[in-house]
Here is the input.
Amino acid sequence: LHRLIRRQRQMCIRDRPIPAPKTAWDWNTLLSYPIIENMEPMVALSYHPQIITRPQYAIQGLSGALFEIYGRQGLQERLAAAAQLLPAGHRFVVFDAWRSISTQMALFNSLSRRIATNHPDWSEDQITQQTLKTVAAVSRDPKRPSPHNTGGSIDLTIVDEHGVLLEMLSPYDDFDETARTNYFEIKADLTEREISARNHRRLLYNIMTTVGFTNYDEEWWHYDFGNQNWAWKSGHEAANYGATQPVFPWTQILD
Here is the structure.
């Protein structure tokens, strides 16, 4: 009976369309959401049988990137709950969560250069605005930290029972319009591959939002909990997470 209920729940999750954004994303709007820091600790995300961590920026050698992926405890608890809703044999693959300021800066600069190369006729402002759709601006302002720097953002996808990534038809960190979470909900005349990608995005979106995450509309892989992005999208009056970093006691001893 429990297996039947779980299977029916998963079918509903897979079939539920991803809704269109109610309002256009505006980074400046987030400043109106205060941060009431709840002091939740940072925890490693790798200690769960249904969660694989693949720290993309450490693998790429970006400044400040770590080979363990950390997030707030509340984020980890909800991710573990989300894992229970995955189809049998499936697992999450986490690419990134907490991100240092130096890594944020390296990403922003790297993407800006890629966009400038692809669009040599664009102005500096056009390049910056396009970059901001994928990478938040580097911020040391305690009232407006970069989302990943709070430990309340996570980038992830799903692998099937054979360890194969589910097809999303847009790679992680893609800045093309196909990266928008609901892209295949509004595109007409979908091919079989596009229908499959749409259903996979629905699976990820509905599982994550069921346990309390919110999604960044421009990126099918990006979800938030507890930070200002989450406060705005979920209707909360304040965020719970401000800028933070992992604590390593042994480095304090060495100091």
